[in-house]
Amino acid sequence: MKISDRQDIAEAFARQARACLELGGPFTANLCRILGANLDDGAAFSRRVTAWPADSLWPDLLPLRCCAALNTLVRRGRAPALAAFYPPNDPGDDEPF
After folding, report:
1. Which is nearest to 54 in space by CA: 20, 16, 10?
2. Half-sphere exposure (CA, 13 Å, Cβ side) for 10?
3. Which residues pair with 53 in a beta bridge?
4. What pLDDT is stored for residue 95 in this prediction?
5. In the chain, is it the N or the C terminus that has fewer CB atoms within a 10 Å radius of its CB?
6. DSSP line for 58-88
7. How far apart are CA 17 and CA 11, in angstroms?
């Protein structure tokens, strides 16, 4: 089983961002775009997602799982700084979370 590299993951997030835009989900599209573009070796998030098996990035819907996890943190009040960027707030399309 091949472990994912950053390029595989970035493409999965970009693909999901395009799908979200096509389906009318601009916020989730922007979140996917930002997550995929900001993968960093030192970040816990990046270490976690780069350990995901490459052959299951898309079948497991990894980008949507990541978005759902962040949404859960926001809704439970565990990420107040991140909540400032969630609807109904409007951070703008290029604002890095």
Report:
1. 10
2. 7
3. 3
4. 55
5. N
6. TTTTHHHHHHHHHHHHHHTTS-HHHHTTSTT
7. 10
CB within 8 Å of 13: residues ≥ 6 apart: 32, 33, 35, 36, 37, 63
Looking up tokens 């091949």, which residue turns up?
2
Query: Domain residues of the chain, as ranges?
Result: 6-83
Indicate the pTM of the whole model: 0.85
| Single-letter amino acid, residue 67 | C
CA distance 91 to 97: 8
Q: Would you tell me how many other CB atoms lie within 10 Å of the CB of residue 96?
A: 8
